[in-house]
Design brief:
The chain has eight helices and ten strands. With 235 residues, the protein is α+β, with helices and mostly antiparallel strands. 33% of the residues are buried.
Length: 235
């Protein structure tokens, strides 16, 4: 009986061109008509590309919501609309958003940093008549590096670092990586204030962090978009 069953299975395998094969990992798999699915998967390269990465969220959002839920929600919507508009104006795109945070991708480091500065300047103007305790303000991290692009989102170490830099920024502030500093060293008059090496969560080695302080008075005198002269901010 067992021999009969084996013969039937063998006949079916030959009929459908199913041949057992052993993978490089020591497990059996099925090769269909010479097609090795695992080999194709290993040969498939992930879509990697260099990008300027901006990660922003609202500082003290939980406290603001506890103190004034409806007012904070209205100001959150206004702030997110402002951020999305600035991202679009610099040729970027929103890769991911969740509640009070946004991850955006740009073609280069300068566009990402220009956007960050524009957002903080516009946010200062938006909050100018509000008491400090009620202001909805962004913290922003900017990085530059290779990202993995998939299904409209971006992933990878460079994205993770942008999020960690955002966590180091103060309310209304911008923190950037050494890669951003290096990319703009010869093309921009931005002042980068070194904060030294910092350990951040889930990254084994300390990272060089730079702070950008935005000056509203000087910002009012300049067109900060892509066609303008380089950004000028002060330490």
């Amino acid at each position: 009986m067992k021999t009969t069953i084996k013969n039937i299975i063998s006949s079916l395998q030959r009929g459908f061109h199913l041949l057992p094969a052993r993978s490089a990992y020591g497990t059996n798999r099925v090769v269909i008509a010479g097609y090795d699915a695992l080999a194709e998967e290993r040969e498939h390269d992930l879509d990697r590309k260099p990008a300027g990465i901006l990660h922003a969220d609202i500082a003290d959002y939980t406290r603001l919501t506890e103190e004034d839920e409806e007012g904070t929600h209205r100001r959150l919507i206004e702030s997110m609309d402002l951020l999305r508009a600035e991202i679009a104006a610099l040729g970027g795109r929103v890769a991911h958003s969740a509640g009070d945070s946004i991850l955006a991708e740009f073609a280069d480091a300068e566009s990402a940093l220009r956007c960050a500065v524009n957002v903080q300047l516009a946010s200062q103007r938006q909050n100018i008549d509000l008491d400090l305790s009620r202001q909805v303000r962004f913290r922003i991290g900017v990085n530059f590096g290779d990202v993995i692009a998939e299904d409209g989102d971006i992933y990878g170490k460079a994205v993770n670092l942008a999020a960690r830099l955002e966590g180091l920024a103060c309310s209304g502030g911008i923190c950037v990586s050494r890669d951003v500093r290096t990319a703009l060293a010869e093309t921009s008059d931005i002042e980068f204030i070194a904060l030294g090496k910092r350990y951040v969560r889930n990254i084994s080695e300390p990272v060089d962090v730079f702070w950008i302080e935005v000056d509203l008075d000087r910002g009012n005198d300049a067109d900060m978009h892509a066609s303008a002269d380089p950004i000028s901010v002060v330490p």
